[in-house]
Every structure is written in C-alpha cells, then in structure tokens.
Amino acid sequence: MARRLEIWPLDRLVPYARNARTHSPEQVAQIAASIIEFGFNNPILVDTNAGIIAGHGRLLAARKLGLDECPVVVLDHLSETQRRAYIIADNKLALNAGWDSDVNIRENGENGKPEVPNQRRGGNAETRACVRFMRCEPNAPGKQASGVVGLRAMQTI
Hints:
Blueprint lengths: L5 E4 L15 H14 L5 E3 L5 E3 L1 H9 L4 E6 L5 H16 L5 H8 L16 H11 L22
Parallel strand pairs: 2-4
Antiparallel strand pairs: 1-4, 2-3
C-alpha cells in the first residue's frame, strides 16, 4: 500500500510507452480546467523508476498549464506483473462504472443536467462555474460548445 504523497518535477516522470489509453485535446483541456477549478487532487501514480502507471492525461494537462511539478504516489509494492495489470485495470474499471439514474435526477434535475443557479435562486459565481464545468459549457466570448470546458481559467489555457 502506498503511504505518502510526494511532489515531483514533471520532467522526472516517464510516460509508459505502451499505454493503450488515449487522451484527446478536448479531454486534456477538461482535465486542465478541473485542476484549475478544484486543484490537483488526483495524483499521478508511478513506479520506483518514475514510470507512470496511471495519470498520463493528468501529466498532459499539467504540461498544458505550464506547471513545473505535480503530486505523485509511488507504488513501490507492486510486482512487475501487478504493475502491468494495474495499468489496464485502472483504466478499465472506470469504464465499467454506471450511473444511478434516480440519484442523477435528484442531483441534476429531470434532464440529468444540473440547473444553472442564479443570484435570485441563491446560486453564487462559484456554484455557477462548477455547473458550467460539469456541463462542459464554455463561458469565454466566441468559444463554441464542443465539449471543451469553458471555465474562467480556460481563457488562459
């Protein structure tokens, strides 16, 4: 079991050359927007040789943001076989998850999308930014809604 979080320079990290997971520019922009809005809360997982086990998209987003370092967790307890299996499992398990429709409706309204609150209904700018993030709605003038997150910070990406 990993026991601590470390902060490493990005240039120390070694992407896994045979990583089968791909990351579109739109998804990298979404990850970057999430890092800006909420913080770098999901560390990159690495082996003892600084090889990335999970977090290739987060590394791309960190580079896009011009960060020099990021949080990592060293998984030094995995055998080589376990490391290779975990690379696949980490990606595949997320794909196998589903959604509870009743909870989604309770949280996000009948159409499954969050209602954008306004000041008259008690919403604040921070809440509206979060809702825009979840909907992937751009808020920058002239940007198109193409699945790219449009938080205030996206204008700097």
